[in-house]
Amino acid sequence: MLHRNLIPGKRPLSVRPSHVNAAGSYLIDFGAEEDDIMSEESIRMRFFGYRLRVMRSSLMEARITQFATQHAHVVPGCEYARNDLALYLGPLPFPPIANDRLLHLIKNNRRAKVLILMDTKSVEAYLASRDGHVYYEFHMTAEQTSSCQILLIGSSQDPDFIAFIPKHLIWPRRARKDCVFQSLRIDVKDRFEPVPAFPPEMEPFLIPMTSLQVAIANMEAHIEDPGKKWMLPHSGVELKWPKPPPRHSVKEIQPEAEAHRKAMDDMVLPIHEAFTKAGTVLKAALPGLYPIAGDLKLIDDRAGRAEAILVELKDSHCDMEDDSHQSHVSLRHKSWALFNPNSLIFTFRAPWHCIITQISGSDGKSLCIPRKRIPPWWWNNHTSKWLSWDIDRSLFNQLTIDINRPDDLVQTMESLYSSNEFEWRDIPMAPLPLPDYKVSDPQQKSYKGHVETDVWESLMRELLMEMCRNARLHYA
Question: What ranges do the domains of the chain cover?
């Protein structure tokens, strides 16, 4: 059984000591408190713990995608897609570069049902609050239980192994509502006792991450010739389908919501096409390994840049008031994506170098705003749905592009790039507002405010920043 070693030492409340291993995985476990009344420290730990878990999961899923796409026929999905990956079983040739495969399907085989769908998941140990047992869980939507055929499950506690599990072994049929897989519980007598990275149910399906390409190739050979045995490398476990797996179209790895699909068709694809036809030093591609890094990336092969320029695209998120007699233009921009307060656009976690935001009612007119030019008060703003900026008219004209004029768009962005406008700038992590919780202070019924800065919180902030940098530099 696979175990990890925890660093011994004093642990504050329910937090295990932090550890960064050689593979760049960040291990901090947050257990639930036993009492309904929580101290302020517990509130702060839960608040940061959720964000750490989300970042760990994102990094783990990006790592799985990195290894899976080494197989020549694996296609990475888009941000907001129902499934993260797909195995292509259509006619050849097929693009050798992973980031080109999705665009190839969208442009040439949009309706063809040639994909076996796969999804990436991340599990880690949770400590049950009352009985001291450890368990593992992950989530699937009802639609995923219908379409997805293979689950690729990783753990940040042991990033060198992955569980390769046919979905029908977990959910034999489509679920009627969203599902949470919860493993058998493991008795832990000592809270500092090393716990397995994966639940016991997944042990037979564990393979080295470096063998993932071989596992996918074995599955592909079995699908094309059912007479061939489907064996997992390393473990030698033989797998079988209860019936031939259904094949799906590229729609299943495109954005699920209609608004996101429309934004891809109206913005991402035209900009990609414009750079492809222009033949400039900047080449456009999709950020396939880490889709939440942005909607598009630009690469300067000539300069040998190790870091791509990540571009975030927003459709009609900006309003403009323009008086030709004034020296400035008044802008208002949405602070929340789809007015969701848990999905701020301008935060320290934003991995992009510039944002292209379409101006409402302007028939294609957009602003390409480099990260370094974004006003300080737009960052980490939790108090307003709209952010205002009286921008100097000359700067406004410099940043204005027209989606409907590809040559103008490419020329403007190349000019900004040549002027070093897209250089990276770290954004400080502002104090985050806390949700309402009961606290142990009898003088205060609820606690809502900002986390005070102390040594522990500073370490948490730096850890989150480091994880964001790791995602941007290695997986975008």
Answer: 19-252, 257-418
Q: How far is CA 251 from the centre of its chain?
A: 19
Q: Residue 17 is encoded by which pair of tokens?
A: 């000591």
Instruction: Give residue-wise pLDDT tens across range 35-92.
Output: 444 555 555 566 666 677 778 888 899 899 999 999 999 999 988 888 999 999 998 8
> Which residue matches tokens 């935001």?
357
Decide the pairing of beta strands 125-127 and 74-76: unpaired
Structure tokens at 325: 């007699």
pLDDT of residue 305: 59
Reported as type and span, the H/E element at residue 40 is helix 40-68
Angstrom distance (rounded) from CA 75 to CA 68: 9
The string of DSSP codes covering 444-476 is -S-B-SBPPP-HHHHHHHHHHHHHHHHHHHHT-
Buried b / exposed e across 337-349, counting CB within 10 Å, b at 16+? eeeeeeebbbbbb
CATH code of 257-418, in short, is: 3.40.1350
Residue 2 clears pLDDT 90, i.e. is over it: no
| Residues 45, 47: Cα–Cα separation, whole Å | 5
Instruction: List Cβ<8 Å contacts ≥24 apart for 316-325.
Output: 316/358, 316/359, 316/360, 317/345, 317/357, 317/358, 317/360, 318/357, 318/358, 318/359, 318/360, 318/367, 319/359, 319/360, 320/359, 320/360, 320/362
% of the chain at pLDDT higher than 70: 76
- Number of Cβ within 10 Å of residue 3's Cβ equals 12
pLDDT tens for each residue of 203-213: 999 999 999 99
Q: Which residue has the tokens 């975008």?
A: 476
Note the residue count of the chain: 476
Q: Are 93 and 279 in contact (CB under 8 A)?
A: no
Q: Which structure tokens are listed for 198?
A: 């994966």
Identify the DSSP state of 172.
S
State the average pLDDT over residues 351-367: 86
- DSSP letter at 144? H
Residue 340 CB contacts under 8 Å (≥ 6 apart), including other chains:
none
pTM: predicted TM-score of the whole model, two decimal places: 0.80
Structure tokens at 462: 């730096």
- Rounded to 10 deg, the angle between the 406-418 and 269-278 helix axes is 80
